[in-house]
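User: Can you predict the 3D structure for this chain?
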Amino acid sequence: MGYTLLTFIGLILFYLLCAWGLSRIPVSGEVAAAPEIEIFLKTNGVHTDVVMPVRTAQKDWSLSFPFQNTRRADTSYRYIAIGWGDKGFYLETPTWADLKPSTAFNAAFGLGSAAIHATYYHQLIENNQCVKLSIGRDQYEQLIQYIDKSLQKDDSGSLMTIGANARYGDHDAFYEANGRYSLFHTCNTWTNNALKASRQTACWWTPFDKGIFYHYR
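Assistant: Here is the predicted structure, written as structure tokens:
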């Protein structure tokens, strides 16, 4: 039992060491010749979202994530935050007090399915938990394609909403997503890969939000 416990502790420490070290290795981004679109990286201290304008010439996100799927159905929102994660964790753990060992185990070892959480905002305030990036149209197009590939669709090509009551507040909704969450591909890994896809500065690899924000603060 002692050797088993020491092995377990050693694996945890090795994982944390890799997470710290590899997140400090930057993947350099490309400076846009004409940075016309402002996006944001937002964290709650654990989980990161990519925040974009609701409407641009290239994409109207309200057509993909209808305002009517939120409780308030307010059509005046200017920004949409999109995050990816484990479906069970999202729906069963609105606060850390609700976390169950079974939910954490399933999420950590890729035993569940994935979901996209879309949240609307009227405005954003730049601070230590929200940073702004200015990108070009071609970079934004690649970001759109990355997010689109993460979403599950029905036979008609529409997104698949998860439950009428699966919401945290009045301005959000959940949707079925592709992929599986695990210790090695977390919500923050998904965001980091979104940065890579749109040719922005990113970590070589990170499971934590701290790795991403290390390069932007």
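The chain has seven helices and eight strands. The chain has a mean pLDDT of 93.
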